[in-house]
Specification:
- The complex is a heterotetramer, with two copies of chain A (82 residues) and two copies of chain B (148 residues).
- Chain A is α+β, with helices and mostly antiparallel strands and 82 residues long.
- Chain A is built from three helices and five strands; from the N terminus they run βαβααβββ.
- Chain A has one domain: Beta-grasp domain (Ubiquitin-like (UB roll), Roll), CATH 3.10.20.
- A five-stranded mixed β-sheet of chain A has the order 2-1-5-3-4.
- Chain A starts with a strand and ends in a 6-residue tail after the last strand.
- Chain B has 148 residues and is an alpha+beta fold.
- Chain B has one domain: Molybdopterin biosynthesis MoaE subunit (Aldehyde Oxidoreductase, domain 3, Alpha-Beta Complex).
- In chain B, a hairpin with a 2-residue loop joins strand 7 and strand 8.
- The model of chain B has no long low-confidence stretch (mean pLDDT 94).
- The chains are: A alpha+beta (82), B alpha+beta (148).
- Strand 2 of chain B pairs antiparallel with strand 2 of chain C.
Chain lengths: 82, 148, 148, 82
């Protein structure tokens, strides 16, 4: 089981702050593809790879990062801190 | 190093006083404070900041450790708030202490540039009752590139 | 604009508080404080700063006016002391307030670079009972050149 | 009459903080030359043009600046404020 966490408009559009899933995806990119196929909301949220970022176990990761050891994967828009 | 991610209001002059009193043999102290602007044309009701508990503080510490490697600085402080913030309230602050002004200024600007685009905070503005997420601006990403 | 050339000690956190309370619609506040270092190898007994009464304050005002022309900043403050200063005491401070961080940082660095080499102050250090005038360093003159 | 003011090591080496003089010099450079001829202390203080700065009526001036209208001329080393 992997915990998915959503922030900002991703959380709002998917309609929940997170969920636990079973996946056979081996990279972030495969996981995104899997999520896209869940339903239209997911498809729309994850349609533009340039519009969001991903963190694995609370560290920024690239889309081709492997999911081995991933317990918590977060999806969020580019940060706007400071 | 002092890092605080908090909802509570903070008095930046009291924080900088506390920070400065802990320093020894420092010649230059730089502070940056970000404040919620009460925009002129549009009327900002309030701002709301969401963050990623757990990752936020760890990420800020990594950024500060990185600044310690890049510049000869004595110490650094970062305070960043989340939750609901009214116009005029402090959002966050950075303080850096060094022997010389160049290092203190550069480290403070470096920390600011990284906090803007790499610390997991997301700002929402509520203007005339309508809310929208603040979009990341290209200039902030460009600002980062000078530190590579 | 607030300019003070004074012998008296100042509490920079109190000064920045006062300065910030006078501001409206500001998003970024940068401060720089210069402190007398208690050098490690050599033991600084104290520092003495001489200045050119009359010219000093006028010169600082000209430098601030210039910063107002170069950047969109809301306000600026400069306090600079003269006379005898002990290690650990504040020498001077600069504060700048703007809508955005880039302007506030650049204006503060500009003011610092100009104060270093263009405001008529001369520092004397007394080390182990022996006094010497601090020599201007080439790096400070170089720092100025980036604003031309 | 023009008031001359000396600061820092210039004041210390000349041995006074200022003096009033009558001069027929028409530029700063001529005035420096005139001062050099007063005695050895002045000659040494003003020997290296790179070691000091000049202000006319409290504004920085170059060595070829004319003295017309000058009421107060200050000599001092490069500033070390901040």
């Amino acid at each position: 089981m992997i915990d998915l966490i959503y922030f900002s408009w991703i959380r709002e559009r998917i309609g929940k702050s997170g969920e636990s899933i079973e996946t056979k995806s081996s990279t972030v990119f495969e996981l995104i593809d899997e999520l896209r196929q869940k339903d239209t909301r997911y498809f729309e949220v994850f349609s533009d790879l340039g519009s969001f970022r991903v963190a694995i176990n609370q560290e920024l990761a690239s889309f081709d990062a492997p999911l081995i050891g991933a317990k918590e994967i977060a999806f969020f828009p580019p940060m706007t801190g400071g | 190093m002092y890092v605080s991610v908090q909802n509570e209001f903070f008095d930046f002059s009291a924080e900088v006083k506390k920070f400065s009193e802990s320093l020894e043999n420092v010649g230059a102290l730089v502070t940056f404070t970000g404040i919620v602007r009460g925009q002129k044309s549009k009327t900002l009701d309030y701002m709301f900041i969401e963050h990623y508990p757990g990752m936020t503080e760890a990420q800020i510490k990594i950024i500060i450790e990185d600044s310690f490697k890049r510049w000869k600085i004595n110490d650094a402080l970062v305070i960043h708030r989340y939750g609901k913030l009214e116009p005029g309230e402090p959002i966050m602050m950075v303080a850096t202490a060094a022997q010389h002004r160049k290092e203190a200024f550069e480290a403070a600007e470096f920390l600011m540039d990284y906090l803007k685009s790499r610390a997991p905070f997301w700002k929402k503005e509520v203007v005339n009752g309508k809310e929208h997420w603040v979009e990341a601006i290209a200039a902030d990403e460009t600002a980062l590139s000078r530190w590579r």
